[in-house]
Fold:
Amino acid sequence: MENQNSTDTMTVPAEQQQSQQHNGNGQPQQSQRRSANAFLRPRTHIVETGDGYTLQVELPGVNKHGLEITVENGELTIVGRREPFQTEAELVYRESRTADFRRAFELDPSIDTTRIAARLEQGVLTLDLPKAEAAKPRRIEVAVA
Amino acid sequence: MNIIRYQTPSAVAPVLPRLSGLSALSSEMDRLFSAFPFFGGSEERFEGWQPAVDLYHDKDSVLVRAELPGMNKEDIHVSLHEDVLTLSGERRQEKSHNEKGNLRSERYFGKFERRFTLPVRVDSRRVAASYEDGVLTVTLPKAEEAKPRQIEVNVK
Structure:
């Protein structure tokens, strides 16, 4: 996870790999350079299916009230805000990070943005991004005279 | 999700193949835990993914929270043996997401295990756990003898 707000490109995902740090959840290395409005970059799994793409985004602690998904100018933005754990008890040890999540993806233009479907289940957001009918490969029958 | 009685270490600590990146992470975690006096340090090394864990306490109980997004409740196991709490389980990958066509794979799948030595005795019969929004919360009420007590001393 990264504190950055850059846009991923779904069409060319390989280009985005340089900044990936698999530092696990809750590693303390970034705390010193985190500012008040920094976001965590949630871990994401992207699969290309026959009909489009499926994204799975890990947003632990986020419920649907804290989730904001927007599509604008061919860019999909996911923001997940979480409430701090409500307890009277004293925190004695922390590995998790408290910042909210944000990540943006540049959408393949063939995606039909009117048909994007989202569900949030146990802290994982699943987005189905279907391609427009016209963009799907089609077999064209040729009539032989 | 089950709260199970502790069985044997081999039953709750499945062996995974060594993964070089995770092994470095794991030794880092070991270092962190040994530097932190509240926990007794993780007892043995385990090669897998490691969810972030937070610990709270008040006068009545110890609360442990673990970030475990995208699990089935049935695949989360919480066990307690004396003062050692073990959180373990397996995150399964949907078959449809395991085929070629993966453009990006940042999520960890497979087994995890975290083991902590609790700072106080807890009442094992009253341990409760809940799983909500991908976060596991385990509440461990302190054993009566571990609670702070005020002792009246008669001064003559």
